[in-house]
Amino acid sequence: MFFAGPIHPAYFLTRRSALLGGLGLLALPAAGLAGTPAPPGVWPKALQVPGGVARLPLGPAAMRPLAFQNEVPLLVMGDTMEWTALVGIALAAEPAETFITVQEAGGAQRQVNYRIEPKRYSEQKLRVEPRTVDLSPEDQARYERERAHQQGVMATFTQPLPSGLRMQVPVPGRRSSSFGLRRVFNGQARNPHSGMDIAAGTGTPVAAPLPGRVIDTGDYFFNGHTVWLDHGGGLLSMYCHLSAINAQTGDVLKTGERLGAVGATGRVTGPHLHWGVMLNRAMVDPALFLAA
Ligand code: ZN
Question: What's the pTM?
Fold first, then answer.
């Protein structure tokens, strides 16, 4: 597995330093090199389908280029030898040839094309409380207020960028492969399932999968008690249906630090963690960020 995979980042850095040093091109001070973010490795895995992530090579450049898709800023990782744009592909995206726009530090703009391949997600039929499918006018108004609030949360794009993208599972337990399922609640079609469900008992601690800052907590109609984390560069994660929230907006969490506990709040069929991962405002499959 190790030998079949890409070159280990440490090896790459060492080799690059040796190469640049040997050619007399290593102008960066040692402290600058040590502070360079590590290359992203192989996480997230590339999967160019709706709900997946495209990894688009941008080539070398002295400074990190900016990249956008439909004017939404994208996460660009790597170093001066090779930059990579990581593009979250919305579940609602149509299979097509499409592109991102790249803005070099010098001002030049170009397009980088990529293809979204088709993926047919299967259907899931669920039985839930009728009041969570046919909303009363009060619940509908509440949901619309909450949706507007969450859209603000989802537009978060901050520095610093994440130093690595390989995530730790937020709670141990059986992981469903239900991401992307087209859902039918009580016989009515609704939005597809945009996260990973992990089965665990009420009260099981939920931990941050990467370093992150808490940017929102609340009790929402569908999602129940919820925590949002910002990992930088438009990479966010959300934790829903919690029985308890153990973090506050503004808290900075390390990988493995507790943010809440598994529960069954909101629209659920039983206790579990719903874990969402968002990249450039697109919910993508969290499994792409896990080692196994
Ligand atoms: Zn779920």
Answer: 0.84
